[in-house]
Amino acid sequence: MTTRQHWLFGDQLGPHFADHRHHGPDPQAPLIMIEARSVLSRRRFHRAKAHLLLSAMRHRAAELGDRVRYVRARTYREGLAEAAGRDRVTVCHPTSRRALELVGSLGQVDLLPAKGFLVTMEDFTTWAGEHARGRLRMEDFYRWVRREHELLMEGDEPAGGRWNFDTQNREPPPRGARTLDTPGPWRPHEDEIDDRVRHDLDRWERDGTVSFVGRDGPRQFPATRREALASLRHFVTHRLPCFGPYEDAMLAADPVMCHSQLSAPLNLGLLHPAECVDRAERAWRDGAVPLAGAEGFVRQIAGWREYVWHLYWHFREDYRGRNALRHTAPLPGWFLDLDADAVTAHCLATVLAQVRDTGWTHHIPRLMVLGSRALQDGWDPAAVTDWFHRCFVDGYDWVMLPNVVGMSQYADGGLMTTKPYTSGGAYINRMSDLCGPCAYRPGDRTGERACPYTTGYWSFLHRHRERLAGNHRMAQAVRGLDRLGDLPEVLARATERGDTAP
Fold it and tell me: Region Disordered: which residues (predicted)?
């Protein structure tokens, strides 16, 4: 039997994607990688994201040497024809519907099961079928994954007698601290491959074939398996011990805090989630990490990440167009261009600058600063999803569609979460140091110093009062509208923002 070549997509770069075991490709199969320019020319991606992707692909090709044929082509279809002719090839299940449709349209491609996740698609389908009569709650899924994979378990019970330690993992930043007292995040050293990538991106921009947003500073994320493992070791040793308490906090001068920044190498396939959660559990059992912190990290990887991946495929394609709140406003130009200098609100300007400069922020700025602003102002959720996909180095379709449509923008009407995630300025003030130097005051609803998040919050509740009044988690907040004697002034102040930055 002829050995089939195996095609690696740009987010299938770890050794497990070329491993013949566990329903993988043929043993010692020749490998194909295709650098398709059309991926970058279709939309305005963040420059740092394009750099990281191309650097990771080219580093992987260099590691594989003669085993891989690396083709640069206009499209995947043209690249595959050049690399394989009409020969049959295999590929692991792609991570996007569009890529899966492409693979299905190519008669010569044999589809292998997805790799890079803890839970198989078949096992999730079985689990979802058993829970079909009720909501597919992440908490139920997370507990099932913990049991199935024996993560942080003591026999049949969760370690410490509790499934989650959220109450211990939601502390505000230490009072008066500009940064957390912990070693800085791991950073790579660029090499000649990075130099060549940057040169090519510059040339393509000059030629007008691609256009980017954001800045391409020194690469901050792993582009190789060795770098990814070094980043994981550094996090578990130096930063996981303080991760738990401050995972929901924000500091202007410390955008990374104690977060792992492992989402980028995980989503490139350079790390497997099993090795991440196993290292965290080992650190806890060795006494190096508090249980609450280890559990918080395991929850993000084995809970939320797995949950989002499977919901992406579980929901039908029409999920992409969900817009339960009927939000249709276009994204303003300053947001699309990452023009942080045009923004007055200190929290939004700070976070937008972080995205501009690095293509990354942790989950709370994404949800409670960027996403909350979009939700309050009624921006089109499909456009918001596209923006997050393009502007974050760890942004992929499967990641951002459920996270933005389902959680951030509540556009699915509650299929994924039980309430909209938005707040006034008081939350941001409590969980960060971002309000102190701001021109606005988080407690002011009206007047020149009215916080745009506070006015936006009340305006959002007023606009969707009828729908939200029946939500048990929002009913009390909605009733708060009746206590606002200045509601007309608040709504007027919110309307004044228009399409310009506050």
Answer: 158-191
The Cα–Cα gap between 275 and 302 comes to: 11
Structural tokens at position 145: 């994954």
| Domain-terminating residue out of 84, 112, 140 | 112
Number of domains in the chain: 3
**Residue 181 structure tokens:** 């007292």
Helices 225-234 and 273-285, axial angle in degrees (round to 10): 30
Task: Answer yes or no: do 237 and 310 share one domain.
Answer: yes
Q: Tell whether 18 and 135 lie within a shared domain.
A: no
- pTM of the prediction? 0.96
Helices (H), 359-394: 363-364, 372-377, 381-391
Question: Does residue 224 lie within any of the structural domains?
Answer: yes
The neighbouring-strand residues paired with 6 are 31, 90
* In 176-279, beta strands by DSSP E: none
Residue 157 and residue 61 share a domain:
no
The answer to whether 260 touches 362, Cβ cutoff 8 Å, is: no
Distance (Å, whole) CA 340 – CA 373: 14
